[in-house]
Design brief:
Chain lengths: 121, 111
């Protein structure tokens, strides 16, 4: 069965860095687009970034552009999110999600359990 | 800041029906498929509806989706206590550097 397991969250000071990982299993990882989506405490969902199946196409939300870097290692079935210059407003549960890409958009059919990132001094 | 607008909350008694609206624009809902996600308390979101009105395997037909112009609607019939959750619509937006946008979220309460 499809499994996505995030790790790497924790407490970090403002301006610090953190690297999140997402281990995928149960499907051919290299065939799928992947995304990171976050949810601040008590708030709604916010899409953060996506990466194409080969890694050649990447997009970021304006709120993280220039500070976060998404990447993937298809040989290791893993997705990553390098987060630099962290701010208090980056505090959230970060989910990795598998995307079903279509001609008219796409949707997220599997989600991990999430990893909590807390940015605080 | 979400570009898709949903009502903050809806409620109904067990067995009744609720509908949740999701209002967008031509750059998102108007030209792309809409999906819906259910988030039970303390859990990760789960895909409920994709391609406007299709249900993944395992999702009961009590859940339905529709789209008209720049708005979409999620319907839940035969409401159950287990349906108490937050519901989010989502779609791609072609005007925001290929961003994916979620709705503001709707809390469903079973009275």
């Amino acid at each position: 069965q499809v499994q996505l397991v995030e790790s790497g969250g924790g407490l970090v000071k403002p301006g610090g860095s953190l690297r999140l990982s997402c281990a995928a299993s149960g499907f051919t990882f290299s065939d799928y687009y992947m995304s990171w989506i976050r949810q601040a405490p008590g708030k709604g969902l916010e899409w953060v970034s996506y990466i194409s199946s080969s890694g050649s196409t990447i997009y970021y939300a304006d709120s993280v552009k220039g500070r976060f870097t998404i990447s993937r290692d298809n040989a290791k079935n893993s997705l990553y999110l390098q987060m630099n210059s962290l701010r208090a407003e980056d505090t959230a549960v970060y989910y990795c999600a598998r995307e079903m890409r279509e001609l008219l958009g796409g949707y997220f059919d599997y989600w991990g359990q999430g990893t909590l990132v807390t940015v605080s001094s | 800041q979400s570009v898709l607008t949903q009502p903050p909350s809806v409620s109904a008694a067990p067995g009744q029906k609720v509908t949740i609206s999701c209002s967008g624009s031509s750059s998102n809902i108007g030209n792309n498929y809409v999906s819906w996600y259910q988030q039970l308390p303390g859990t990760a979101p789960k895909l409920l509806i994709y391609d406007n009105n299709k249900r993944p395997s395992g999702i009961p037909d009590r859940f339905s989706g529709s789209k008209s112009g720049t708005s979409a609607t999620l319907g839940i019939t035969g409401l159950q206590t287990g349906d108490e959750a937050d519901y989010y619509c989502g779609t791609w937006d072609s005007s925001l550097s290929a961003n994916y946008v979620f709705g503001t979220g709707t809390k469903v309460t079973v009275l």
